[in-house]
Amino acid sequence: MPLSKILFATDLSPGADHAGRRALQLATAEGARLRVINVIPAPSLDETVLKRWRGDTHHLMADLMAATEQALAERMTTLGASDDLAMEIRCLRGQGHKQILTEAREFGADLIVVGSHGQRSFKDILLGTTTQNLVHHADRPILVVKQPVQGAYRRIVVPVDYSERTRKALHLAAALSPDDSLHAVHAYDMDALDQVLRHRVVASEVARIKQEVRAEQEQALNDFLAGCGLPPARLSAQLRLGYAPTVVEQAVKEWGAELVVMGTHGRNRLQDALLGGVARRVVHQVQAADVLLIRD
């Protein structure tokens, strides 16, 4: 999937700077247009201020938006934006994640880039952060940046659930890191099987059944990767027993990964609900790498 248009949403907090540098790195590497936006909440000014403001509130808002756009331009220059980069700056009014998604659709963004932390009030904590809402509602790939930029991504973990979205995730990961190998990991658990077998089957039979289940999982993983259309030399695969977000977190640490690329849905409606929750949990739990989510 080529990246020709990238949308970077920032609240101008220090926590957004890593995401800004990553957006610049990707836009430069991909030759993409970059749109940088800041959303001023509507209503954006406290009622106590508005009641005491004697001037035209429309002019006040216009001045605030102009000053914000100037601050955005200065911040991007500080982060390393070059003069020849196709970049535009916009300050908007609206409701956080909804306005960002509207802008992404209008711009035709191939990717939304956000930071994992920003300025949060007590109200934000209660209602959910902008990033969390974007992860839940985004209709296009979204990159949640957590780590400082050390150049292009080189070590990428791709969780595998045998879905078409996983196939897309593998190909996007390969495009982002064309010269390096990808680490595919599939997590499975046997909790349900343990519940069925407990106290009803002798230990040797339980071991045999679990061994057969693992063999079937390994075959399914190998078959899926063989059919994904990527050179085998570019892929390493691992099957792990455990809870998927924890398995991904462990793989990131052991592999030294800089990025996780994963689809947010599975192969049917039930898996859509379950795996959507898994993806959001991965975004929350994995701190040692950035997370890129793909959704149709």
Query: Topology as H/E string?
Result: EHEHHEHEHHEEHEHHEHEHE
Biggest sheet, in brief?
Answer: 10 strands, mixed
Q: How many separate helices?
A: 11
> What is the CATH topology classification name of the largest domain?
Rossmann fold
The CATH class of the largest domain is Alpha Beta
First CA to last CA: what distance?
Answer: 12 Å
CATH homologous superfamily descriptor of the largest domain: HUPs
Highlighted features:
Rossmann fold; 11 helices; alpha/beta; 10-stranded mixed β-sheet; 2 domains; 296 residues
Sequence-ordered SSE layout with sheet pairings:
Blueprint: E1 5-9, H1 17-30, E2 33-41, H2 47-52, H3 57-79, E3 87-94, H4 96-107, E4 111-115, H5 122-127, H6 130-137, E5 142-145, E6 156-159, H7 164-176, E7 182-188, H8 191-197, H9 203-226, E8 235-241, H10 244-255, E9 259-263, H11 269-285, E10 290-294
Helix pairs in contact: 4-6, 10-11
Write up what this structure looks like.
This protein is α/β, with parallel strands linked by helices and 296 residues long. The chain folds into two domains: 141 residues, HUPs (Rossmann fold); 139 residues, 3-Layer(aba) Sandwich (Rossmann fold), CATH 3.40.50. The protein has a ten-stranded mixed beta sheet, sandwiched between helices. The longest helix has 24 residues. One of its GO terms (molecular function) is ATP binding. This is Nucleotide-binding universal stress protein, UspA family. It comes from Ectothiorhodospira magna. Belongs to the universal stress protein A family.
